[in-house]
Amino acid sequence: MNLATLLASDLPYWAQSLLRVLGGLVAVLLPAGTVVYLFLFKMMSFMQSRLGPMEAGPQGSMQLFAEVGKWLQKEDIYPARADKFIFKLAPLIVLASTFLLVVVVPFGPDALFTDFESGVFYALAVSSVSVLGILIAGWASANKYSLLGGLRAAGQLIAYELPMVLAVVGVVIQAGTMNLQQIVVAQNAGSMFGFSSLGNPYVLTQFVGFIVFMIAVQAELTQTPFDMPIAESELVSGYMTEYSGFRFLIFFIGEFATAGVFSMIASVLFLGGWAVPFSWFGWTSIDSIDNWMNVVGPLILFTKMLAVVFFIMWVRFSYPRFREDQLQKFAWKVLIPVSLANIMVTAILKVAF
Amino acid sequence: MSLLGDRQQLAYIAAQAADARVNVELETEGMTLNIGPQHPATHGTLRIIARLDGEQVLWADPSCGYMHRGYEKLTEVRSYPQVTALVNRIDWLGSFANEVPFILAAEKLMGVEAPSRAQHIRTILFELSRIANVTLFLGDLGVQLGAVTPVFFAFRDREYVLNLIEGATGGRFHPNFDRIGGLKDDLPAGFIDETRNVMKKLRGFCDQIEDLLFGNEIFQSRTRGIGVIPKDVALQYGMSGANLRASGVDWDLRRDQKLPLAYDKVDWKVITHPDGDSFARCWVRLQEVRESTRIVDQLLDTIPAGPIMAKVPKIIKVPEGEAWVSTENPLGEMGYYVVSQGDMGPFRVKIRSASFNNISITPWLLKGVYVPDIITILASLYFILGDIDR
């Protein structure tokens, strides 16, 4: 019995809610943990010709638990002049934005938290909630480095919100819907030039949009080359400078969980999401999909997510960082015109075909 | 001077005009940012006091002395052979290079010259410490600009050089190997072959860094045209070493002065760059590592047989007199002015270290740049804290 059939049956409201919360925790924390261990610990070490953590568990696989244990034990420190309430609130807001994001991601034909008609719109809206958390973290720390980091983050995230939205518009035009589940269906039930065995993953037809989207995601996640808000060689740790222990852990989880969730959204929008091309199994619509896809679907999505995160992390480990003004120039002078042109071309082709 | 740009001049005028209210139009207040003494970017305890308008620097002032250890005074209560153990610690990344000018100054006063084999080995070790030093700079450069990977390559390949130095001298960081009249020991067996291998690896490392960092568009946009030092300004501030050569001044003490070292016996060239910006400084250093590996390779071929110690008395007393010897160290010109009154130890030693002069240009250079550029410029000027404070 899988999650979706459980939810569909007549469970009481509290049990359904509990299941949803547990599902949300798994959907946020599992990718975060995997990304940290697989990419931050192991892939990074491999690229830098070292071993990475090796002691905790086989191949250091328990290292993350050790780290979490360490952070939990640490003293909860806050600066004397900090605005205490806001200071404590900030990491939670950042993490909350991640949880809000995962709500609309479809994991299978029935395995989804909510079926929003305007899912794309919602996802792009709540992803900017984290800016608020970062900004108040920077302000409430009463630290000049944090302040600079917070303001840089605000400028950067607002600048990159726009190309991200514009890049997704191309997908929305092509799919004709803002419902993420429908976008998955449109990709896998569709065909390219009458050739239907691959479906129509939008990474092929919307590759410009995909590249712009990934660059914007990189900036939204404040990963190198767009990591000026943290910039450890300039601003010590940016808006996180004064955070330690549990609160730092929340920022840390938030960073990698958001990377995971954004990659899921990228896979849903551009790589076909949880589904395989429908023609492989002779499905015609979403209703005719076999029930086992509710179990296999999340795994497929997870695999695609890891592939996308791999590229994010690859860039992160090899590139130096931009300067703040260069970053703004890049967003406004390159990415936005490119994505606008992409929308124009998509719209024209949509009408033409 | 047109390279300076209006931005720097305007920022200078603004700073002069109003101290607290820096932006007259918006009536915003400036912010004084202390970069250091404890800061991840300064790899040591240098403090930069920067007055900011937003992210733009109005003026910046380096404040040093947080790590002053009083070596000049300490040398007065040490005997000559003991001093090398102290001066090792001035520029701790290229420590053997610190010993050489002091020993040469003492030899000059005593009228002793090291045998030819000792001169060769000195030069080899001198260049090895340059390689060990600048290799770390090339990796650290990446970290300062936000790329995390190059520094691990740098540490990996620098380890080979440190192993060589350790094999020859017994000390990885602080060899304390140079003696008045020669060297402590001869080279160990197998050193020459091993060094050839390592030099090959180091050239590979240079190629790798060139691919990974110098060819990167982001790296270039972060360093080109940032922190431009024109020729005349560089000379006025007494800069030396790669910083000066990157400003287009063809000046290298290894070539320009006659010292009992083996540089005149090998074929090598002085690298200069006309631009004077941060990229030029980094590029010159990268090329100099390549050039150093060539020098070492050639010296290994021509190393003569013979003693490694000249005839010097067991108890060293340096005759009365004064001597100044400076060499081209990894960071720039390093010199010792030794005053002797005929005792076991020097009467007074003045140490001229390169980093102090190199960073003295920062107040001029940092006007009008952005906060990230402070880090780029400081990284490209390349100082070692021990070399500033002594």
UniProtKB/TrEMBL annotation, chain A:
One Gene Ontology cellular component term attached to this UniProt record is:
membrane
Q: How does it sit in the membrane?
A: Multi-pass membrane protein
Classification via InterPro entries = NADH_UbQ_OxRdtase_su1/FPO
Any one GO molecular function term: NADH dehydrogenase activity
Q: Where in the cell is it found?
A: Membrane
Its main localization is membrane
What is the designated name of this protein?
Unannotated protein
Q: Which organism is it from?
A: freshwater metagenome
The organism's taxonomy opens as:
unclassified sequences, metagenomes, ecological metagenomes
From TrEMBL, chain B:
Q: Which PROSITE patterns match?
A: COMPLEX1_49K (PS00535)
Against InterPro entries, the record matches this protein to: NADH_Q_OxRdtase_suD, NADH_UbQ_OxRdtase_49kDa_CS, NDH1_su_D/H, NiFe-Hase_large
Entry keyword annotation includes tRNA-binding:
no
Annotated NADH-quinone oxidoreductase subunit D domain residues: 145-315, 316-390
The reply on keyword Translocase is yes
Task: Provide this UniProt record's keywords sorted from A to Z.
Answer: NAD, Translocase, Transport
GO molecular function of the protein, one example?
oxidoreductase activity, acting on NAD(P)H
Family note: Belongs to the complex I 49 kDa subunit family.
Q: What name does the UniProt record give this protein?
A: Unannotated protein
Q: What is the lineage of its organism?
A: unclassified sequences, metagenomes, ecological metagenomes
